From TrEMBL, chain A:
Gene3D superfamilies, sorted: 3.40.50.2300
Top-level taxon of the source organism: Bacteria
SUPFAM superfamilies tied to this protein: Periplasmic binding protein-like I
Family the entry assigns: Belongs to the leucine-binding protein family.
Lineage: Bacteria, Pseudomonadati, Pseudomonadota, Alphaproteobacteria, Hyphomicrobiales
Protein name in the entry: ABC transporter substrate-binding protein
Record-linked InterPro entries: BCAA_transport, Leu-bd, Leu_Ile_Val-bd, Peripla_BP_I
Keywords of the record: Amino-acid transport, Signal, Transport
Domain Leucine-binding protein: 24-364
Signal sequence extent: 1-21
Organism: Bradyrhizobium campsiandrae
From TrEMBL, chain B:
Chain segments annotated as coiled-coil in the UniProt record: none
Topology class, membrane: Multi-pass membrane protein
Superkingdom of this protein's organism: Bacteria
This protein's record includes keyword 4Fe-4S: no
Protein name, as recorded: Branched-chain amino acid ABC transporter permease
Pfam short name (any one): BPD_transp_2
Keyword field: Amino-acid transport, Cell membrane, Membrane, Transmembrane, Transmembrane helix, Transport
Database matches in InterPro entries: ABC_transp_permease, BCAA_transport_permease
Subcellular localization, as worded in the UniProt entry: Cell membrane
Residue intervals passing through the bilayer: 6-28, 60-79, 91-110, 130-159, 189-212, 224-250, 262-281
Family of the protein in this entry: Belongs to the binding-protein-dependent transport system permease family. LivHM subfamily.
């Protein structure tokens, strides 16, 4: 009797181990603490929600998804160490990080390991280095900034613009493209202000903006700093219209800045307030699970997992080496894979093409003012 | 010129908060030779205590009172009894290092039990502008300045005009003689810890609406206030006040006229200059201890 029980237990253990071996392993490295905690937490929660949904429906090709989350502490050095550790465990796909600086130092590691990396960084240069394993979940700056500059020049009719940017890879990349585009269109940059990541006091920077008296202010900082400068802009009575990107008018920024966020406008590649039914559904499920409304980073994390699902199902096999090749040039339609939320195409560099939105904060809510179609 | 006026007002408002924190540094040093490197985290924590009170349903005014009371218990009483008293007998340096460890502990605890993300914090001063000398000045800046000045005025009145203040001064200047003439020295030292806790809670209430409530927000404040205390004179309350205001203004002017990247370096350079040419601080006195 004892031996029968022992054999039974062993068989159970083997079967269980076998089941785990069958799971598709994903590795996530994100900004779970430090300056990018808002980014990383949303990203992580989006991933977890997508995995829960996919597993509830039987997984991918009959295999469950598993993910490990590691904290980069919003520090590129830590991110590199965490990515190396994650790659040593041979994941199917690497997810994250969200900060461009962290992506920049980790992308060569993933490429060397031949593992596809789906990340949240938006710096223009990331996908221009010939890395065949790197994929975006949102627009790169080379796609979004020309739209922003055009809006400032054509719709805001701004002849003079103050540009405030955060002094890191993300901020510098956006600043370079937007200033080039503004000058090409004929808008003069009257203040070019660099700020520091994690900066708490923006009184002097806003003082400089007031002194420059621009027709519009372009703000390109991380979320928490965006909230602080919005408060300071209001405190010092700056009335020039404010334009930014997703990081200026995200949910977390609105929550932190309160009334000061009202009137700010931004070009948004992804927003949970988009007039798209599938996105509304995502927003409801996310809010129900986590008790807060996600920002675009929650969407990015969610989409990253559905990119894995759609690509793998298209290949018909779980093959990490062939994954990147299959995703290049792929168009995923929301009609075929509702989890992808909007039709999206990937080019040979891993950049995406998708419709986007022009949003204004009205009474603490994002209101979509214009829908910009896919480029191709 | 208008820009300079705005910068001065903003600098004074920030500097007034630095002054509150710097005064706390001075008080603790004077009465118990405690260099509290967790002072920045002491400013960060009360905001979270107030937020926690609001999360369980307390209105803002009640959360402020609870936050200040809890701060005085945790950052005043418990800090003295559980960390300063046991470490003091080992000297100033081990105690200073223990406060560094405490700073890390507080930060990580807030990150763990509250959030690593920033949280909004309501302001006690309404938004809006008033006209001062023809310039629009935000009510928030004025409110911060007024509250900080009132706090400092109240403290100096307590120290200089009341029997309790005189006892505190005596306990700081010469504890042995103070004991002989009947001053309850231990109680006076505890009182300075409670006053420090009150001041940091007040600073927290004033600065957090601007900086947001975040586990790491004490780092900048602690460093600025420490520099302010040394620049002004570590052994003088009035020195700490002057140092705080000076560093606040200097920081803003440096950010505007030097560079945002090097703004943090300017107060440091000023600190080095002061140490080289006037080591007792601008208003401090050599070889003297008084509160």
């Amino acid at each position: 009797m004892k031996s029968t029980l022992l054999v039974g237990a062993l068989l159970t253990a083997m079967t269980t181990t076998g089941a785990f071996a069958q799971a598709i392993k994903l590795a996530d490295v994100a900004e779970l603490s430090g300056g990018g905690a808002t980014v990383g937490t949303n990203w992580k929660n989006g991933i977890d929600l997508a995995i829960e949904e996919i597993n509830a429906k039987g997984g991918i090709l009959g295999r469950k998804l598993e993910v490990t989350h590691a904290d980069s502490q919003s520090n590129p050095g830590v991110a590199r160490a965490q990515v190396q550790k994650a790659l040593d465990a041979e994941p199917y796909v690497l997810l994250g990080p969200g900060y461009s600086g962290s992506v920049k130092v980790t992308a060569p590691l993933a490429a060397e390991a031949g593992i596809a990396q789906i990340m949240g960084g938006e710096a223009a240069e990331l996908t221009q280095a010939g890395n065949k394993f790197l994929f975006r979940t949102s627009f790169g700056q080379q796609s979004s900034m020309p739209k922003v500059a055009k809006y400032i020049h054509d719709d805001m009719k701004a002849k003079s613009v103050a540009v405030v940017w955060v002094n890191n890879d993300f901020g510098r990349g956006g600043r370079d493209v937007v200033i080039r585009e503004l000058e090409r269109l004929g808008s003069k940059v009257v203040a070019d202000l660099s700020t520091e990541a994690g900066q708490a006091d923006f009184a002097a920077d806003v003082g400089k903006i007031k002194a420059a008296n621009p027709d519009a202010v372009f703000v390109y900082l991380n979320e928490e700093e965006s909230a602080r400068i919005l408060k300071e802009l209001k405190r010092q009575g700056v009335t020039a219209p404010l334009m930014g990107e997703t990081t200026l008018i995200g949910q977390k920024v609105i929550e932190l800045a309160g009334d000061s966020a009202n009137g700010a406008r931004g070009h948004v590649g992804l927003t949970t307030d988009a007039p798209v039914d599938l996105i509304k559904g995502f927003r409801d499920r996310f809010s129900k699970k986590y008790n807060y409304v996600p920002d675009h980073n929650g969407l990015k994390g969610y989409l990253a997992v559905y990119m894995v699902k759609a690509t793998t199902e298209k290949m018909g096999k779980v093959d990490s080496k062939a994954f990147a090749d299959s995703l290049h040039g792929l168009t995923i339609r929301a009609a075929d894979e509702p989890g992808i939320l909007m039709d999206v195409s990937f080019d040979a560099n891993g950049d995406i093409d998708r419709q986007s939105f022009l949003v204004e904060v009205v009474e603490g809510k994002q209101v979509v003012k214009q829908v910009l179609p896919k480029v191709k | 010129m208008s820009n300079l006026f705005d910068l001065l007002v903003a600098g004074l408002a920030t500097g007034a908060i630095y002054a509150l924190v710097a005064v706390g540094f001075t008080l603790l040093w004077q009465t118990s030779q405690t260099i509290n490197f967790a002072q920045g985290e002491f400013v960060m924590l009360p905001a979270f205590l107030m937020l926690a009170a609001m999360h369980v349903g307390a209105p803002f005014w009640l959360a402020i009172i609870l936050g200040i009371l809890l701060s005085m218990i945790l950052l005043g009483l418990a800090f003295k009894l559980l960390l300063v008293d046991p470490m003091m007998r080992h000297g100033v340096l081990p105690l200073a290092i223990a406060t560094m460890a405490l700073a890390i502990g507080i930060k990580e605890a807030v990150k763990q039990f509250f959030s690593a993300e920033a949280s909004p914090f309501p302001s006690i001063v309404p938004t809006g502008d008033v006209s001062v000398l023809g310039h629009a000045v935000s009510l928030q800046s004025i409110g911060v300045l007024v509250v900080a000045i009132l706090a400092v005025f109240g403290l100096t009145t307590l120290l200089n005009r009341t029997s309790l203040g005189h006892q505190m001064q005596a306990a700081a200047q010469n504890p042995t003689v103070a004991r002989i003439i009947g001053v309850p020295v231990e109680r006076m030292i505890l009182l300075t810890f409670l006053i420090n806790a009150f001041l940091v809670a007040l600073a927290s209430l004033l600065i957090t609406p601007i900086y947001l409530a975040k586990f790491s927000s004490g780092e900048v404040l602690g460093q600025a206030a420490f520099i302010a205390a040394i620049v002004g004179g570590f052994n003088q309350v009035r020195g700490a006040i002057a140092g705080g205001l000076l560093i606040g203004v200097l920081d803003n002017l440096a950010a505007a006229y030097v560079s945002t990247q090097y703004r943090a370096a300017v107060p440091m350079i000023f600190l080095i200059v002061v140490i080289l040419f006037r080591p007792q601080g601008l208003l401090g006195r050599a070889e003297e201890r008084t509160v």
